[in-house]
Write a structure and sequence with these properties.
The complex is a heterodimer of chains A (184) and B (136). Chain A is built from six helices and no strands. Helices cover 72% and strands 0% of the residues of chain A. Chain A has a single domain, classed as Arp2/3 complex 21 kDa subunit ARPC3, CATH 1.10.1760. Helices cover 21% and strands 27% of the residues of chain B. Chain B is an alpha+beta fold. The two termini of chain B are 36 Å apart. In chain B, the strands form two sheets. A four-stranded antiparallel beta sheet of chain B has the order 2-1-7-6. A three-stranded antiparallel beta sheet of chain B has the order 3-4-5. In chain B, a hairpin with a 2-residue loop joins strand 4 and strand 5. Classes of the chains: A mainly alpha (184), B alpha+beta (136). Chains A and B meet through helix 4, helix 5 and helix 6 of A and helix 2 of B.
C-alpha cells in the first residue's frame, strides 16, 4: 500500500522530484490558460495544463495522474475561487477518466485521445455548471466548446507527443505497465 | 517532419486517418446548428434575466438602457439596438462578458459564479426550446 502512487522502478527521490516538477508545470500552464482565455470568446480555455495529466497517465501511472488532477483542482480552488475550483475538478476528472480508458484499453492515436480528453473536460465542466446553477441553459455553450475542443485537442496532442520523449528521459525506468500494482 | 508519423515503441501513432471521422463530426454538428440558427434569423423581442433558477426580470430589447438588479450585485446588463450583453460583472473569469452581444431568440449568456442566466426570447416566448437556440 505504501507504493500506491510510486511506480516500483523509480526511486522515491526521483518520484518526488518528478511529481513536484509536473505540479509546478501544471500550475504555470493553468496561469497561461487563464491569460490566453482573455483573448478567446465565451470561456474557451486552451487546456494546456491538461497535457500534464495526460503525460502522467502515459508515463507514470493512474494514481499519480489522479493525484495531479486533484492537486491541480485544489490550486484552482485556492487561486480562482470555489466555482472555478469545482468546475475545474469535474472537468479534469472527466478528462482524466477518458484519457486513462483510451490509453489503457485502446490503440487510439495521441491526437484522438487529446481531442476526446478536451471534449470530456468541457462536458464535465458544463455538467458541474448545470448542477451549480440548477439550470440546463449552460449547455448552450456546448456547440462552441465542441469546436474549440477539436482545435485545442489537436494542439495539446501535438505538444504531448513532443514532450513525451523528454518525460521518458526523466523517468528512465518507467514502463507502460508499471502501474500493475493498482489493485494491491 | 518524418518523426511525427513514426510509430511509438508501444505502437501508438500520433494521428490515424480514421481519426478524421470523429473530428469532422465534432466540427460539423455545431456548425450545422450554427447555420440553422443563422438561417432562421429569429430576432429576439425581450430578454429574461434569471438568478439561481428564478426569473428576476424581463427586459424589452427595443428600449435602450443599462439595467442592474439588487440580486445580481455588481452586474450590469446593457440593451442597445435590439441586443443585450453583460457589460459589467464582478466574477473572476468574465465568461458572461466575453459571450458578447445576444440578439437572436434562444441566445444565452451564463455567469456561473453569480448564478445568472440571460436568455433572449422571441415574440411567442418559446424560442429557447427551438433547434435554433445557440450561443455565439
Amino acid at each position: 500500500m505504501k507504493d500506491f502512487f510510486k511506480p516500483e522502478k523509480i526511486s522515491y527521490a526521483r518520484y518526488i522530484a518528478v511529481m513536484g516538477l509536473l505540479f509546478a508545470a501544471s500550475s504555470v500552464l493553468n496561469i497561461l490558460d487563464s491569460a490566453f482565455s482573455a483573448f478567446l470568446p465565451a470561456g474557451i480555455r486552451a487546456g494546456l495544463s491538461n497535457i500534464v495529466v495526460m503525460a502522467a497517465v502515459i508515463c507514470i501511472n493512474l494514481p499519480s495522474a489522479l493525484l495531479l488532477t486533484v492537486l491541480k483542482a485544489l490550486m484552482v480552488l485556492v487561486t480562482r475561487g470555489f466555482t472555478a475550483g469545482v468546475m475545474s475538478f469535474c472537468g479534469s476528472l472527466a478528462a482524466f477518466a477518458v484519457t486513462a480508458i483510451l490509453f489503457r484499453e485502446t490503440n487510439a492515436s495521441y491526437i484522438l485521445i487529446s481531442v476526446l480528453g478536451a471534449l470530456s473536460h468541457s462536458a464535465g465542466q458544463l455538467a458541474a455548471a448545470s448542477v451549480l446553477m440548477k439550470t440546463a441553459s449552460v449547455f448552450a455553450y456546448g456547440a462552441i466548446l465542441a469546436v474549440s475542443s477539436v482545435i485545442t485537442g489537436v494542439c495539446t496532442g501535438l505538444i504531448l507527443k513532443a514532450v513525451l520523449p523528454q518525460m521518458k528521459r526523466i523517468l528512465p525506468a518507467a514502463e507502460k505497465n508499471t502501474d500493475a500494482s493498482i489493485g494491491q | 517532419m518524418k518523426k511525427f508519423s513514426e510509430k511509438d515503441p508501444d505502437g501508438r501513432k500520433l494521428f490515424r486517418p480514421a481519426d478524421i471521422i470523429p473530428i469532422i463530426l465534432l466540427l460539423a454538428a455545431p456548425l450545422i446548428y450554427f447555420f440553422a440558427g443563422a438561417a432562421a434569423e429569429n430576432d429576439g423581442a425581450y430578454a429574461e434575466i434569471s438568478c439561481g433558477g428564478e426569473i428576476i426580470g424581463t427586459v424589452d430589447l427595443d428600449i435602450n438602457g443599462v439595467y442592474s438588479y439588487p440580486r445580481t450585485g455588481e452586474m450590469e446588463f446593457t440593451v442597445s439596438d435590439g441586443g443585450i450583453w453583460v457589460s459589467k460583472s464582478d466574477c473572476p473569469d468574465k465568461i458572461c462578458m466575453n459571450t458578447g452581444r445576444l440578439c437572436r431568440a434562444g441566445e444565452t449568456a451564463v455567469c456561473v459564479p453569480n448564478k445568472v442566466v440571460v436568455t433572449v426570447r422571441g415574440k411567442n416566448g418559446k424560442d429557447a426550446e427551438d433547434i435554433d437556440g445557440f450561443v455565439r
